[in-house]
Structures are given as C-alpha cells and as structure tokens.
Specification:
The chain is an alpha/beta fold. The protein has 12 helices and 9 strands. It has a single domain, classed as TIM Barrel, CATH 3.20.20. Strands 3-4-5-6-7-8-9 form a 7-stranded parallel sheet, with helices on one face. A two-stranded antiparallel sheet has the order 1-2. A hairpin with a 5-residue loop joins strand 1 and strand 2. Bound molecules: NADP nicotinamide-adenine-dinucleotide phosphate.
Length: 324
C-alpha cells in the first residue's frame, strides 16, 4: 500500500489507510471470536496495513490485549496507536498519565507506543500540561509521538506549542465535516497529521446497510441518529451520488468516500473499522483509487448541495449503557 507521513516533528510513516481495531471488542455488537480476530488483524498486515488503532477503554483493556497479541510477530514494522482518558479533578497529571501508559504497555505486550492520544479533552486540565508530560515520554522513548482526539483548534494550537503533535484523531467523513472549518486547516498549517475515525460514517457510506438492518448488544448504530430509518432514508441522495461515482470509476461507494478524503488532505490517514477480509481488501484498495482534479471538484460541488441528517455523538452513545 502507498504510505503517508503523520506529523513533521515526531513524524510517523504509515500505510495510507489504517485499521481501526475497536470493533473487535467494542462498539459494533458481537464480532469474530478471539482466534479469528487475531487472524484478521494479521491479514490486515499481510494486505499492506502498517497502522493499527486501539484504546485502553475498548473492551476495558481487552482490545489492547488482543491487538498486542495479534501484532507481536511484526510489532517493530508497524505504527501502534492507543489512547488514554485522563480523569477530571486529579492533581498528579503526570503520575496518572504514566500509570495509564504503563498499564497499556503491559496489555499490549510492548515497551513503547508509537502514537499516544489523549482520548477526550479535559475541562479542568490545560492542554499545555498534558503536552508537557507527553514531551517527557517522547524524550524517554516510551512513546514516539502523541495526539489528541476531538479537540478544538485552540486546544490543538496550545498543546502543539509545547510539544509538537503528530496527529489529531477526530470524526471526519462525508457525513461529519465539522472539523473542516478550523482543525483540518490548522493541522495543514502546523504540519500535524489527521486521522479520521468513523471515516465511513459507521459503515453507512459503504451503501451496504438498509433501514431494515437490526443492531444488537453494544452496537452504536442502535443509538446514533444517523441510523434512524427516517435519517437513513433522508440521506439516500448521498449514497446515490457515491454509487454514481463508484460506477463511473469501477470502484465501490466506500472506496470513493475514502479516496475523496485522501485526495482532499494529503496529511490525512483514515482508519476504517472492518471485521471481514473482503472489507479490508475493499477499504485498503481505496488507497489505489485516485480521483482526477475534475472528478474531485465535481464531487465537492455535488456534496455541498446534499444536506446530512443525523450524527454520532458521545451523548447518544452513552445511552447504550442502559440498553445492554
Ligand atoms: N477517537 C475516538 O473517539 C474514536 C471513536 C470511534 C472510533 N475510533 C477509532 O476509529 C476506528 C474506525 O471507526 P469506526 O469503526 O466507527 O469506522 P467506520 O469504518 O466508519 O465504521 C465501521 C463499521 O462500518 C462497517 N464497514 C467498514 N467497511 C465496510 C465495507 N467496506 N462494507 C460494509 N461495511 C463496512 C464495519 O463493519 P464490520 O466491522 O462488521 O466489518 C463497521 O460496522 C475504530 O475502530 C477506532 O479504532 C476512535
């Protein structure tokens, strides 16, 4: 697969499309068993993927254990990203971050993390303070680079001034473009990579789901408003547009939506979540689908006229707790 570089200082070279590993333990209902999941993650590497994303919170640590086991044979050849939540109201920020990192390293079975993200920004802990600790961890070789998730432009700039950020991981797709106005341009200006999560709108942009599909367990599609019947029907024009471009290019809707963001931002690396080999081949294959400038402009113009219905919010996802 083609590669891309995330960040300028503390830079990391990764495959142009990575693998979001969350779904193997968390957020998309029942998945493959442990052995099959290990095999799938290894298949991703065989297909050219060198960028693997997990977090301490996915499956309460189980996802880190799974990913660590799966990547063990090729650990040194990949970029392994994980994330921590820093509790509000603590005084020893450095001690808490170090403890979380040590716990992640133990679960992952490794002695360094390539990319360590602050999973959500804290209201009571200044971004500069977290950045300072991340800088020390980089100097010590415990992490190679760091980042934030769902941060504002102000939080990005303040933290980056203390310790250069490698990548911001936030939601971005044709269905969620809120960071286009500020964070993405700031990343381009500052030389920070951008890693879109839910780059296929939780699968909607593949065009393979209908309002008849039923989701179970901890599947976020039970609660995010993008998947209500009403909103799925209302978002059909977006799928029609994707199918039109896909047919013309001999590609799939998922590939067109990933190729669109890869074309638009050359410092961006999407991490779709997928638990089937065919989907890996399809989504990784998006790195080879190139849009001409004219095709891209045509797509942008048409996209601008299509209103998007529903979204994916932390508040909606929190409702799952009472349902499982
Ligand atoms: N920083 C954060 O706060 C945050 C939040 C959410 C996610 N993430 C990270 O970002 C990663 C990606 O997010 P996401 O999983 O929501 O992304 P996504 O790729 O937009 O959605 C994943 C869903 O789409 C389905 N899918 C993917 N490719 C498909 C294809 N070609 N055809 C049909 N269905 C397809 C998957 O199915 P199957 O899995 O059943 O194959 C899964 O149900 C996560 O794994 C996680 O590592 C981070």
């Amino acid at each position: 697969m083609k590669t891309r570089v995330l960040g300028k200082q503390n830079a990391l070279t990764v495959s142009a499309v990575g693998l979001g590993c969350m779904g193997f333990s968390h957020g998309y209902g029942p998945g493959p068993d442990h052995a099959a999941s290990v095999q799938l993650i290894r298949t991703a590497f065989d297909l050219g993927c060198t960028f693997f994303d997990t977090a301490e919170s996915y499956g309460a640590g189980e996802n880190e254990k799974l990913v660590g086991e799966a990547v063990k044979p090729f650990r040194k050849d990949i970029v392994l990203a994980t994330k921590l939540h820093i509790p509000e109201g603590i005084t020893d920020v450095e001690g808490v971050i170090r403890q979380h990192l040590d716990d992640s390293l133990r679960r992952l079975g490794t002695d360094y993390v390539d990319l360590y993200y602050q999973h959500r920004m804290n209201k009571t802990i200044p971004p500069e303070e977290v950045a300072g600790v991340m800088g020390k961890l980089i100097e010590e070789g415990k992490i190679r680079g760091w980042g934030q998730s769902q941060s504002t432009e102000d939080e990005v700039r303040r933290a980056h001034a203390v310790t250069p950020i490698t990548a911001i991981q936030s939601e971005y797709s044709m269905m969620e473009r809120m960071f286009e106005k500020d964070v993405l341009p700031a990343c381009r200006e500052l030389g920070i990579g951008f890693v879109p999560f839910s780059p296929l709108g939780a699968g909607f942009l593949s065009g393979k789901y209908t309002s008849q599909d039923v989701y179970t367990g901890d599947d976020v599609r039970r609660v995010i408003t993008r998947f209500t019947k009403e909103n799925m029907d209302a978002n059909q024009p977006l799928l029609d547009l994707l199918h039109q471009f896909a047919d013309a290019k001999g590609a799939t809707p998922a590939q067109i939506s990933l190729a669109w963001m890869l074309h638009k931002w050359d410092f961006l690396v999407p991490i779709p979540g997928m638990r089937k080999v065919e989907r890996m081949k399809e989504n990784f294959g998006a790195a080879e689908v190139t849009l001409t400038e004219a095709e891209f402009e045509q797509l942008e113009t048409k996209l601008a006229k299509i209103p998007i219905h529903g979204n994916r919010t932390d508040e909606d996802i929190a409702k799952l707790k009472d349902m499982i």
